[in-house]
Amino acid sequence: MSKRMQNLMLPLLAVITGLILGGIIMWISGYKPINAYIALFQGAFGNPVFIANTIAGAIPLILTSLGIAIAFRTGLFNIGAEGQYWIGAMVGTWIGYNFPHLPWYIHIPFALIGAMLAGGIWGGLIPGLAKAFVGAHEVITTMMMSYIAILIGHFMLERGPMMAPGYNPQSPLVSPTATLPTLISNSNLSAGIFIAIAAIIVVYLVLFHTTFGYRLRTVGYNPMAAKYAGMNVPLFTIYSLGLSGVLAGLGGAVQIMGVDHQLTDTFSSGYGYTAIVVSLLARNNPIAIFFASVFFSALSTGSQVMQINSGVSPNMTDVITGVIIFFVATDKLYSYFRGRFRRTAKAQSEQKGVSLS
Amino acid sequence: MAILEIRNLRKVFGSVIANDEVNLSLEAGETHAILGENGAGKSTLIKMISGLYKPDAGQILLNGVEQHFANPRDAILAGIGVVHQHFMLIPALSVAENVVLGSEGSRFLFRKKDAIEKVLRISKELGLPLDPAIKVQDLPVGMQQRVEIVKALYRNARILILDEPTAVLTPQETEELFAVVRRLNQDQIPVIFISHKLDEVREIADRITVMRAGKSVNTMPVADATAKELAQLMVGREVVLETIKTPAQTGNVVLSVEGLSVRDDRKMTRVKNVSFDVRTGEIFGIAGVDGNGQTELVEAIVGLRKLEGGKILFLDKDITAESVSGRIHRGIGYVPQDRQRDGLVLPFTVADNLILRSVGNQPFSKSGWLQKKSTRASAEKLIKEFDIRPPLADAQAVSLSGGNQQKVILAREMSREPQLLIAVQPTRGLDVGAIEGIHRHLLSLCEQGKAVLLVSLELEEIMQLSDRIGVMHAGELVTVMDAKKATRETLGLAMTGERVEEGVAP
Ligand SMILES: Nc1ncnc2c1ncn2[C@@H]1O[C@H](COP(=O)(O)OP(=O)(O)OP(=O)(O)O)[C@@H](O)[C@H]1O
Ligand SMILES: [Mg+2]
């Protein structure tokens, strides 16, 4: 089997196993798995509005996953995408409702760029610097920074400076000049999809067609060789986590400006965590991230119809997701240990011909 | 009956036939050498015998019984112990833990004390002293190999296979290893020994099997084979075993090291007040027993290690404070000792590895964009020039044989046309034909008026190539002598720390 095929097969296998095990659990619990899956599929792709909503749900996943994938490619774990997503949403909202007199062609880029910068600083610069200079592990720092971000978000809305007049913990609506137009009426699909697709293309080009991406990947695969080749490893750590945060921040702003139009207490979506699974499933490939994001979005949009039509709780999709994570992660863990204990595992992986590229 | 018999074994990777019609038989108590060029398929054969790869065809018989190993564990249980070319130890674990790992038996917790005792006993019996408590990552390679051997015997190996064991050893350690091999032979344990060094093979082996292009071409008793014949069998053409060196036309000073002192990671001073010059057109060799400060000296010159004292001048410029990349751009090329750890990005393709140190330069990139076409064209040229096999620019580096990985690094460094090439053990693990090629490349570099700083543990190589030879002992450069006047004896003496008066001039 060629490496390319294998790269495709293993994730597909994980997905199929997830669906089968989910089906078995439904069957044991007395439901009809086939009917449930048909309902799930119809809920996700049954009519144009459903399709639009599925794609809309994939947008924030695509953006955050791209960020996580960049970090992974550099050998770093950005666990805090959720917080960077919040920070991006917060800054996007703030800029979005504060400057209603700006023309849209300035206001929209302004809000997006502000959110990207904030996400980059939050997720990248601070943990990146901490790692580069005092060796603080990014898993801990990005996660801690993430909690701080989410809590700041709640503070802002619960009688904080961003709370709209009234009693509900929510911000004012962003001005129409900072709203991304909806593409299909009655759906959530906004022009944000173009931003997501552009991001996929940019990340792909940067990773595989620029010297910068080449160096990021070198640092990720073998920091020693990178050092010997004269690359500044700490600097690339900062760049990589920074870009990771930029993309998550962008995801947050796009969600606000395209779908939610205001920040609410319930904004927290878990996208930052699901995105980790998406990038694992997609093996950090920007193009595969598109499909993996649509898949996870479909699970979540379809699950409501599944409940209505066949009575299966939407939580069932979490079980499926869990199984997929399990299978994808064991494979991924294995490559991680291969990197760590290169000498130990090398020969075995050689035989399997597993490739990360 | 043969203990181990290989019949018509075959293994194919994609378009590469790594093994084909390989036959071999191993008798009790013999040492059987396998010789062959880089990429001839030796390691692949070993990996099939040890259960890492499944053969595509053919049979493996142990004491006449056909074996089907599904994984390395099966092979270990069948009594096959292997020390692979690239070790398979876990750096973060202790020696004892590495040895018992995977063989703790059915017990839930392994008994640390028992393990330590058993490791001590085996290593004493073998005459290979080891500290069971030390972490593997803190051991030099020679010691790591001991761990691998002890590990194999801990699991009651009845056949020991050594894949290029001496490539990482000093002459002294090689002798110790040979003593172990002889002792095992006495206990009727046969040993398969892979090496590119013909004199070693002639010293230790009873029989020799030569492999070429994936096939076993011949098996003969060692007494019947001359070095020249063997080389010819391996390569399939006549080989010049001794490179002829014309005396250098030396010119200006390229590298000047003044009063250099360097500490290692544990803050011990490993290089003490070392001064020397390297001039255009010459090869300056540094000899010495491994671990006498050569690594630290080289890392300091390349820019990977801070100085404790002293100064480094390159082409009359003080580069003491310059970064690694700054030094690369000034024209310092570097072939590191540990090719897999420091020299290559294994998941990258050969082409990508070849531009590791020059991605930022024309023609490999233009304003930040990779130029894949020129990268590929240059890779194809280098693959041909350095005879990298298989000749595929987009093969992953990890799929190359050990010797060919080394060629990739050398090709990369030479292609940058450095003013100074620092080469540490550049021919380690290369076959005779390839060594000949590398030596020719190094000499041609000098003829073009470039300089080479050659660090090698092999006296032969140093003596053959160098114009001047410095000897390091305990961090000091105890002597610098004219290569014409150097003999094995004077060098050997200096390596023990004896100052040789005659040549103390820098
Ligand atoms: N996992 C793999 N995938 C693809 N090709 C491989 C793989 N392993 C080995 N090869 C190819 O098989 C051939 C034989 O390689 P092998 O490692 O057995 O050579 P070798 O005789 O041990 O060489 P060396 O002396 O350089 O160590 C080479 O052409 C190599 O590139
Ligand atoms: Mg080999």
What do these coordinates show?
The complex is a heterodimer of chains A (357) and B (506). Chain A has 357 residues and is mainly α. Chain A has helices at residues 3-28, 33-45, 48-73, 81-98, 104-134, 138-157, 192-209, 211-221, 223-228, 233-260, 271-281, 286-310, 316-340, 342-352. Chain A is built from 14 helices and no strands. The longest helix of chain A has 31 residues, at 104-134. Residues 337-357 of chain A have low confidence and may be disordered. With 506 residues, chain B is of the alpha/beta class. Chain B is built from 17 helices and 22 strands. Chain B is globular, with a radius of gyration of 23 Å. In chain B, 50% of the residues are buried. The A-B interface holds A 2, 208-215, 217-218, 221-222, 224-232, 341-344, 346-351, 355-357 and B 14, 47, 52-53, 84, 86-92, 302-304, 323-328, 334, 336, 340-348, 352, 356-357, 359-360, 365, 368-370, 372, 396, 398-399. The complex binds adenosine-5'-triphosphate and magnesium ion. Magnesium ion is lined by residues 42-43, 85, 163, 401-402 of chain B.
